[in-house]
């Protein structure tokens, strides 16, 4: 049973029964996307000017993209991540990926708190990167005009590549 409700000021609210879904596909122009406490094998979520939030989810591959909105993953576990925003912030907290994680923002900050993935690539043009990772990493970092503060690399850890043109990097 699928429930669709008009709920001001939120707009359209879609309620999904609790189960594991094969694919979650959401596209919006200016709406917010909130997915809470749902399981799915694959998620493709895109928005032009709305925020995207996954909270308490268990997922396979997660791919999100927004032009001017923020992306948040909180208490979410995935097998792989691909998160892209042009002018929004990306915030991951208490989130893990058992595979690769690719996180990219053109002009927004990337905040990774209690986050981990075996291999990760984080890039910004003019945003800062602030991270608290759950395991040691072999760091490859570059900032052309920002400050860099990362711990010593752990050669036995996965690769953590962080690049920014004009932002600071702190791990």
Overall spatial form: globular
Which structural class best describes the helix and strand composition? Answer: mainly beta
Largest sheet: 9 strands, parallel
The CA-CA distance between the termini, in Å, is: 45 Å
DSSP helix fraction? under 10%
Rg over alpha carbons? 16 Å
The H-and-E topology, N to C, reads as EEEEEEEEEEEEEEEEEEE
Low-confidence stretches: none
Rounded mean pLDDT is: 92
Number of helices: 0
Strand percentage lies at over 45%
Number of strands: 19
Summed up:
With 171 residues, the chain is mainly β. It is 0% helix and 63% strand. It is built from no helices and 19 strands.
Write a structural description.
With 171 residues, this protein is mainly β. It has strands at residues 3-7, 11-15, 20-28, 33-36, 39-47, 52-55, 58-66, 71-74, 77-78, 80-85, 90-97, 100-105, 110-116, 119-124, 129-133, 137-143, 148-149, 158-164, 169-170. Strands 4, 6, 8, 9, 11, 13, 15, 17 and 19 form a nine-stranded parallel sheet that branches.
Can you tag this structure with a few keywords?
171 residues; mainly beta; 9-stranded parallel sheet; 8-stranded parallel sheet; 0% helix; 63% strand
Layout of secondary structure:
Layout: E1 3-7, E2 11-15, E3 20-28, E4 33-36, E5 39-47, E6 52-55, E7 58-66, E8 71-74, E9 77-78, E10 80-85, E11 90-97, E12 100-105, E13 110-116, E14 119-124, E15 129-133, E16 137-143, E17 148-149, E18 158-164, E19 169-170
Parallel strand pairs: 3-5, 4-6, 5-7, 6-8, 7-10, 8-11, 9-11, 10-12, 11-13, 12-14, 13-15, 14-18, 15-19, 16-18, 17-19
Antiparallel strand pairs: 1-2
